[in-house]
Q: What sequence folds into this?
């Protein structure tokens, strides 16, 4: 049996529950692989008989410990993720057998070198551009290498049929999550953006994929039935907002919750934890490694250069979700999103004729008042 951390008794109750739940899975022999990014093909992890678990951290609590090794002027997501690993305070990292990283930014790339000293960490080499002639073949080769790495680590064979079955299961999940997020198309808004984001994040820790789908489907039906019964046929005058940019979980309270309490509706998310990786599915009719490479190279993260599909997707979301304004969230020191924000602002304001606000922030509460002031002014401008 795997031991709990030495300082387990000092943890908050919710974290204790997470540790005990993960320990129960590990004691049953469950394989667990930690991941940080939507570029990682989780189908290969499922095909290996393991469960993928997200390790991105969204609280400032472990950052001081991380800053003993990492620079202060670094992305808070990177520092928090490393800090949890360093202090044994994240149950999901603690009980992971193996970590899969990826070269989506220089900060994470170097942080993974330090992480490998704590737990085996394999880093996928992402092509810097999806339009280069060799990009798809290079990414497919990375998929094959990851498959072999998982086979060697667990001493198993991952068959094409196991991958194909995992593709089918993940595509079903994408459909379910997309239908849930498309509730944001309804006017009046059927549920808050705060709930959409929070529920999707929480569902990632329901380790049974079918159970996860069933829970989200049930909530989708419940919300839709309530909307049709109570507000269908009316129309809200609350501003409808699209949130784009960096992962927003760590700043959800001071931005998304705050702006909704001021009288707006966040109806759509173009982010890692939003629509971005759910709009397009894995082709179930192609050879499995080709299909995975095509799907996962098509993610519109700002690390890709150039990245025109992101603008196209944002434009489609503005139209389909009846968006009045766009809020872009930039985490401190995220250079690719910060630079690409210029293109997003130009596209949103000039091509789509919509209002745009860019907020650069971190996980602290120090700028909460300033952000509230800027959000209030933005909504006032929207009328």
A:
């Amino acid at each position: 049996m795997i031991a709990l951390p030495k300082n387990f008794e000092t943890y908050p109750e919710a974290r204790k529950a997470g540790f005990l739940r993960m320990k129960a899975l590990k004691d049953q022999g469950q394989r667990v692989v930690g991941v940080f990014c939507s570029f990682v093909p989780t189908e290969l992890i499922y095909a290996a008989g393991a469960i993928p678990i997200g390790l991105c951290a969204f609280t400032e609590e472990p950052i001081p410990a991380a800053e003993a090794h990492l620079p202060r002027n670094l992305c808070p997501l990177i520092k928090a993720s490393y800090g949890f690993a360093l202090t044994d305070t994240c149950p999901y990292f603690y009980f992971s057998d193996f970590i899969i990283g990826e070269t989506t930014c220089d900060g994470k790339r170097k942080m993974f070198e330090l992480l490998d000293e704590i737990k085996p960490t394999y880093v996928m080499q992402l092509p810097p551009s999806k339009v280069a002639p060799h990009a798809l073949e290079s990414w497919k080769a990375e998929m094959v290498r990851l498959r072999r790495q998982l086979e060697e680590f667990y001493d198993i064979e991952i068959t094409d049929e196991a991958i194909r079955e995992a593709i089918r299961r993940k595509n079903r999940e994408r459909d379910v999550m997309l239908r849930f997020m498309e509730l944001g198309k309804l006017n009046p808004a059927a549920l808050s953006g705060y709930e959409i984001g929070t529920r999707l994040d929480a569902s990632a820790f329901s380790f049974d994929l079918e159970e996860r789908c069933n829970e989200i489907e049930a909530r989708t039906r419940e919300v839709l039935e309530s909307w049709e019964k109570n507000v269908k046929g009316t129309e809200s005058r609350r501003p409808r907002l699209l949130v784009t940019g960096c992962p927003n979980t760590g700043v959800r309270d001071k931005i998304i919750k705050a702006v909704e309490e001021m009288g707006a509706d966040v109806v759509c998310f173009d982010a890692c934890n939003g629509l971005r990786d759910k709009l397009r599915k894995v082709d179930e009719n192609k050879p499995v490694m080709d299909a995975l490479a095509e799907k996962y190279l098509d993610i519109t993260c700002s690390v890709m250069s150039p990245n025109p599909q992101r603008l196209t997707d944002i434009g489609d979301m503005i139209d389909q979700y009846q968006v009045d304004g766009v809020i872009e969230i930039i985490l401190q020191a995220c250079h690719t999103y910060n630079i690409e924000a210029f293109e997003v602002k130009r596209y949103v304001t000039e091509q789509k004729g919509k209002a745009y606000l860019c907020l650069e922030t971190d996980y602290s509460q120090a700028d909460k008042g300033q952000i509230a002031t800027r959000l209030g002014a933005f909504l006032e401008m929207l009328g």
In short: The longest strand covers residues 325-331. The chain has two domains: 8-158, 162-382. Residues 6 and 88 are 9 Å apart (CA to CA).
